[in-house]
Design a protein that fits this description.
The structure is a single chain. The protein is an all-alpha fold. Helices cover 77% and strands 0% of the residues. The chain has one domain: Sodium:dicarboxylate symporter (Proton glutamate symport protein, Orthogonal Bundle). The chain contains 21 helices and no strands.
Length: 456
């Protein structure tokens, strides 16, 4: 076994320490901005810009990024720490506060209708842009050695995985959907028992309300670290990809982001303007701290805490609606991962392997994209299963995913931002239809930075 030379070991130590020192300097600067009462959103954007700059410099000078990446990993771990208790308690609190099950059925139907409808539109946009840009044209690459596509679960296995058999074990494994279903059962039971004897469930309701307040405080603690975490995460990503990789698959990146931006502006902006009847520019301004977190963490679940804060504090949607729609959206609402991306990869794969697709194939693509997006886990890389299902349904080689694997992480950043925005838009639309959206407070400029995160 080869041992590292003294010079190489010394160089590794020096570059690690250099990245650590850079992190400390940037963190000190961000902390200074916080003490100077610079707004939270501005500090997040400054952290992102500094991370991009530092990452490019590190990549050019071949400096180890482990010191910086460690801070990013700590931030992601802390924010993921909140996911399981947050989903469980918020769903319990949201549903158990309802006085009848008819209201639950009504908001549940509206939520799923918006989730699946926007995913279908996203798939159409991805398909149209991919056909227009033809990202696979002229690309000839070998499939990476050892690449293996994820196994496609059978329909019966998908159903079984959704049914909670041991909620504690599934919570320990990070399975959110079964825990969410268990919380719904508990909440419905509380409503049923409370309708017969309100005193019997009052202690449980009080406990849930108390836990909700405590968790909100923990969320505030973790969210305060966002500018620092965003810097570390974006610096690591920027240092990982060289220009050669970007040039080879630049057409895939361009096609993906054109489709994502079109969906973001036209679909989300159009729904906010025409259905919610609010100013889209004002809406996007209010949600941009959430967008930065989604973009850098690449996880819908990791974005959930700050998304809830944005929905309730900035958009002024009632906590009852936000606590129901947001956790559900982190599990089943994937416009970017389940709609746009599978369509682009399918067209790309067909072009690379010279396989013709017809109108019937396009219809199947859209329908399968909608169905396969349900239940996709909101963690980095959730689009793989959805894309595998779509490629298999169309009879396309799964090797197409291997070719774009080198830049998927870069595209996943935009996909996650679109996913999280879709949940935010749905929360606003459902709240508006139920009269639980405070329009006057939304139009006020006084709350633009009201996320309880100042000072640092």
């Amino acid at each position: 076994m080869d041992q590292p030379s003294g010079n190489s070991l010394l160089l590794a130590i020096e570059t690690n320490w250099l990245s650590f020192v850079i992190s400390v300097v940037v963190f000190a600067f961000l902390f200074y901005l916080a003490r100077r009462r610079v707004s939270f959103g501005s500090r997040v954007m400054i952290g992102l810009g500094l991370g991009l700059l530092v990452g490019i410099v590190i990549q050019n000078f071949d400096v180890e990024v482990k010191g910086i990446s460690t801070f990013g990993s700590i931030y992601v771990s802390l924010i993921r720490m909140l996911v399981i208790p947050l989903v469980f308690v918020l769903v319990l609190n949201s549903i158990s506060s309802l006085t009848n099950l008819e209201y639950l059925r009504k908001i549940g139907f509206k939520t799923f209708a918006w989730f699946l409808g926007t995913t279908g539109v996203a798939s159409l946009i991805g398909l149209f842009i991919a056909l227009l840009f033809n990202p696979g044209s002229g690309i000839e690459q070998q499939v990476p050695e050892g690449f293996q596509a994820r196994e496609i679960p059978t329909f019966s296995q998908v159903i079984l995985d959704l049914v909670p058999s041991n909620p504690f074990n599934e919570a320990a494994q990070g399975k959110v959907v079964p825990l969410l279903i268990f919380a719904i059962f508990l909440a419905i039971a509380i409503i049923k028992v409370g309708s017969k004897d309100a005193k019997a469930v009052q202690p449980v309701r009080d406990l849930i309300a108390s836990l909700t307040q405590v968790l909100h405080q923990v969320v505030k603690f973790v969210i305060r670290l966002t500018p620092y975490g965003v810097f570390a995460l974006i610096a690591g990503i920027a240092s990982r990809y060289g220009w050669e990789t970007l040039q080879e698959l630049g057409s895939v990146i361009l096609t993906s982001y054109v489709a994502l931006i079109l969906h973001f502006v036209l679909v989300f902006g159009g729904l906010v303007l025409l259905v919610a009847k609010v100013n889209p520019l004002q809406f996007f301004k209010k949600i941009y701290p959430m967008l930065v977190v989604a973009f850098t963490t690449r996880s819908s679940y990791a974005t959930l805490p700050i998304n809830l804060e944005v929905i309730t504090k900035r958009l002024h949607v009632s906590p009852r609606i936000a606590s129901f729609v947001a956790p559900l959206g982190a599990s089943v609402n994937f416009n970017g991962c389940g709609g746009i991306w599978p369509a682009i990869v399918a067209v790309f794969t067909a072009e690379v392997f010279n396989i013709s697709l017809g109108f019937t194939d396009y219809v199947i693509l859209v329908l399968v994209s909608i169905i396969s997006s349900i239940g996709v886990a909101g963690v980095p890389g959730p689009a793989t299963i959805s894309t595998t299902v779509v490629l298999t349904a169309l009879g396309l080689p799964l090797e197409g995913m291997a070719i774009v694997a080198g830049v998927e992480a870069l595209i996943d950043m935009g996909r996650t931002a679109v996913n999280a925005t879709g949940t935010t838009v749905t929360s606003l639309l459902v709240a508006k239809s139920e009269g639980e959206f405070d329009r006057d407070a939304f139009n006020s400029d006084k709350d633009d930075e009201e996320l309880a995160v100042n000072p640092a």
